[in-house]
Specification:
By secondary structure, the chain is α/β, with parallel strands linked by helices. It is built from seven helices and eight strands. 34% of the residues lie in helices and 25% in strands. The longest helix is centred in the N-terminal third of the chain and has 21 residues.
Length: 239
């Protein structure tokens, strides 16, 4: 197994986006559109997994969260607002710098680190890693490393593009081709189908609890769906 699943070229590519990461109309505009949909799914599973009050404003009070591949903090900040003690890591120093600056402006205490998951110690109740695994060199090792950091009865939440022609068309041919996503962001050969994801998780000692599609339509935009062809979210815990 590789010592790290980080790909240096990926770090450099994403680091270049730090300057306008928080601009909803900038190069990371698609992430801004994705974020509310992801958050709805994460919140639903937080409530289900720990039998919490779905109306609570701070359901993660007393819990630790780790956001892996956090970018400049689009997901880490709402997790902190939900009450979690958040550690957020990314190997791109430019992104961590932007994340720290933005969090300070929001009055949020988030432990941002330039790091990879294999660099960490300790365990976390909630681990999130959105649109990250398809950028690693070794997805199996990446999941093993995530599992090592997941606390007993912890919850792992991930998202990734599906390995389908539809996903390639929308994500690469159209989104990258027309500039909605920076060109070169994705490599279709690294896309992972849900069944393969479940097997990789099982190999890492994880149990897949749920798979939910992230679909797009002209009328609804990005939304949760039973249609897994484009992109999907996964909830998992220790097996």
């Amino acid at each position: 197994m590789a010592e790290t699943s980080i790909v240096q070229e990926e770090i450099e590519q994403f680091g270049k986006l730090a300057g306008d990461w928080w601009d909803p109309k900038g190069a990371s505009a698609m992430l801004h559109r994705l974020n509310p949909v992801r958050l709805a799914y994460i919140r639903d599973w937080i409530d289900q997994h720990w039998s919490l009050d779905e109306h609570s404003r701070r359901p993660l009070d007393g819990k630790s969260a780790l956001d892996v591949g956090c970018g400049a903090g689009l997901l880490a900040e709402p997790l902190a607002r939900l009450g979690a003690k958040v550690t957020a890591i990314d190997p791109a120093p430019e992104l961590i710098g932007a994340a720290r600056e933005h969090a300070a402006g929001q009055g949020l205490q988030i432990d941002y680190r330039v790091a990879a998951v294999e660099d960490l110690q300790g365990a976390f109740d909630l681990i999130t890693s959105m649109e990250v695994i398809e950028h690693t060199s070794d997805p199996q090792q990446f999941l093993i490393d995530l599992a090592k950091r997941l606390a007993p009865n912890g919850l792992l939440m991930m998202s990734t593009p599906n390995a389908t022609g539809w996903s390639k068309l929308i994500t690469i041919t159209l989104a990258e081709g027309f500039g909605a996503i920076p060109k070169g962001t994705h490599d279709f050969d690294k896309f992972i189908a849900p069944e393969r994801m479940k097997q990789l998780m099982a190999n890492a000692g994880l149990k897949c609890l749920d798979v939910e599609g992230l679909a797009f339509s002209p009328t609804r935009g990005l939304h949760l769906s039973e249609d897994l062809r484009l992109n999907y979210l996964v909830a998992a815990t220790h097996s």
